[in-house]
Amino acid sequence: PxxxxxxxxxxxxxxxxxxxxxxxxxxxxxxxxxxxxxxxECSALMFVVDAANPSQVSNSCVQxxxxxxxxxxxxxxxxxxxxxxxLPCYMSLxxxxxxxxxxxxxxxxxxxxxxxxxxxxxxxxxxxxLQWLRAALxxxx
Length: 141
Description:
- The protein is about 25% helix and about 20% strand.
- The two termini are about 25 Å apart.
- It has 4 helices and 5 strands; from the N terminus they run βββαβααβα.
- It is of the alpha/beta class and about 140 residues long.
- The protein has a domain at about 40-135: 3-Layer(aba) Sandwich (Rossmann fold), CATH 3.40.50.300.
């Protein structure tokens, strides 16, 4: 079974124990216009990019820049997840960093930014995501 249940696009809540309880709110890309209404309660941000869909790279980059420029998120740690690396057509981390111009984004951002490759389908990278989340939320471990 997949580590993440399959869900409809929209807003979903999931509670994690890291060991401290943390609530993860998933907001689908099409929900971009309402994202700012959740910024005030955000302690850490995970931004998921479909690394197997080159046609969405420019849109994802614009959305990421919009999130990073939000005043309420100016000091919130950010994890950019390049997902779907289990698919044969995925773009490598180096390709995604280049397409997103991540070096420029990181140098201009006020937030600490981490990048990881993941597969929600087979769980690749999940342990690293949980480790980042624990650190970002100040959980000991």
